[in-house]
């Protein structure tokens, strides 16, 4: 992949052979970020905002599984069919399926525009596979941002969340309602409630998070990559908080690493 190309989100959703869109600007200092946090903490919204500010691509494994679920059944591989069923229940998709899919688009991780991973990795096994690939290829992670939010707030956010069918913009029925009833402000698409945002799935997802994903906080802390961010504020404020923390981290690293 050359610096003239951007492994944008739509190419990632269309599969390994989809070409990337041309970059509108050069990304001289690409950011390679992982966003961590419980379901509903706002990782998708932050990934979108960070993508606009940093120009790194927003890659969401959840979006890939949702896009696959809209394909005709005959176009879904047996592994993908099984993955969609896990997703509907709110359970994690098996590591082998997730890793196969990420590896198919490994060129997105090599892109000179950088990346923002949202929803991946979600288990220690996935994080180890990713570390292995990144270190073999000599691709350094810039940071791992962990969004923190109390549990009651998370449940309220998830149950009120509505998502645009077309552009994936996220709204909340109380905190961030769309101007038109059930219609996206950005593209006019229809808003819907994700199947896995229903109460029975929320419980399963929170358990999966506690059991499988929360241990990643310690994993990345040990690697010196963790940047904790309080996720209680407006999306723009949280994004600004994230950018400030990333700049501070980057400045501190330059000061402590002579010659970098
Ligand atoms: P998200 O949009 O990130 O909340 O993901 C929606 C659903 O897709 C999750 O509840 C899982 O069923 C599945 N999923 C997405 N990413 C992963 C992953 N890295 N590992 C396992 N399952 C995943």
Q: What's the helix and strand layout?
A:
Layout: E1 5-6, H1 9-14, E2 21-22, E3 31-36, H2 43-54, E4 57-60, H3 61-69, H4 78-89, H5 95-104, H6 106-110, E5 114-118, H7 124-137, E6 143-148, H8 151-159, E7 161-164, E8 170-172, E9 191-192, H9 199-213, H10 215-222, E10 226-230, H11 235-256
Parallel strand pairs: 3-5, 3-6, 4-5, 6-10
Antiparallel strand pairs: 1-2, 7-8, 7-9
Helix pairs in contact: 2-11, 3-4
Salient structural properties:
single chain; about 260 residues; alpha/beta; five-stranded parallel sheet; three-stranded antiparallel sheet; about 45% helix; disordered N terminus; binds adenosine monophosphate
Spatial ordering of strands, largest sheet: 4-5-3-6-10
Computed CA radius of gyration, to the nearest angstrom = 18 Å
Q: Pairing-aware structural class of the strands and helices?
A: alpha/beta
Q: How much is the average pLDDT?
A: 87
| Oligomeric state, counting identical vs distinct chains | single chain
Helix content: 40-55%
The low-confidence parts are: 1-7
Largest sheet: 5 strands, parallel
Bound molecules: adenosine monophosphate
How many individual β-strands? 10
Principal-axis shape: globular
| Percent of sequence in beta strands | 15-25%
Q: So how many helices? A: 11
The rounded distance between the terminal residues' Cα atoms is 25 Å
N-to-C SSE series? Answer: EHEEHEHHHHEHEHEEEHHEH
